[in-house]
Amino acid sequence: MDLRQLRYFIALTEHRSFVRAADAMGITQPAFSRSIQGLEQAFGCVLVDRGNKDLRPTPEGQVVLQHALRLVQGAAQLSSEVQQMTKLDAGELRFGCGPVPAVNLVPQAVAQFIDRYPKVRTCFEVDNWEKLSRALSRETIEFFVADIRHFEADPNFQTQPLKPRRSLYYCRPGHPLLAKDSLSTNDMFDYPLATTLIPPGVRKLLANLSGKTDFSPQVESEHLPTLVKIVLSTNAIGIGSEEAFSEAIARGELARLYWRNLPANMESMNVRCGIVSRSGYRLSPAARAMIETLISVDRQAVAA
Length: 304
Hints:
The protein is built from 11 helices and 10 strands. The protein is an alpha/beta fold. The strands form 2 sheets. It has a 5-stranded mixed sheet with strand order 2-1-3-10-4, sandwiched between helices. The protein has a 5-stranded mixed sheet with strand order 7-6-8-5-9, covered by helices on one side.
């Protein structure tokens, strides 16, 4: 017994004719008949009632048919999954990214990826690094692109740094702070702050600046357009990346804020972008190809 014989038997039950079934399978009728006979000899029973013009399966044939369908379908699924692991002409890629790389890096990389591999279904979710790490642990994504400083010392994760993204402070045109000649960090905390989820180290830095033991922004969201709308309609101060807001600032839609007494370690406010995957986990070819594309796009941006 082999899968070929089972496929022939399934075809016979579908076409109810040795001639039509043999033609559908692309072999001669005598060869097809010998294959069915060989299957019957393997089981030691008759599988098809040849006295019935419809060639209906015998009770034993019904049992064989049910198992044959499952085995043939399972073999096809197995072949498909192995192809997805070894080729880039099928399958699905799932990964995640933070709101900062979602501005330029990920869209550019995905555009290049789907040009090269149009048959791979590409799905990515945009969220903060904390939720993305949980998705990675649940294996609903293969990797994510976000701030990596929380994962660099964790042996459960493997990180690959990309170009850091510089941070800035922004507000609406006409904000009261813009009327002042010089701004200190004390002025910052007179107004609500609106930002994405910030790493613990940055929270501690902001807490020190505000004179508090801990710090949480008054408005937090991973959806940058929503944060912008809130900043434009209130006196809230936004914290974000240059690449996300520099164009809006250049057009005069937003205004940039500068603080005269920022400490030297405020560089840590910058987003330490990188790629995070699970240690010891073999990535699919699609995931590896996407990571290579992300690195290439990132290097091009650095060179530019």
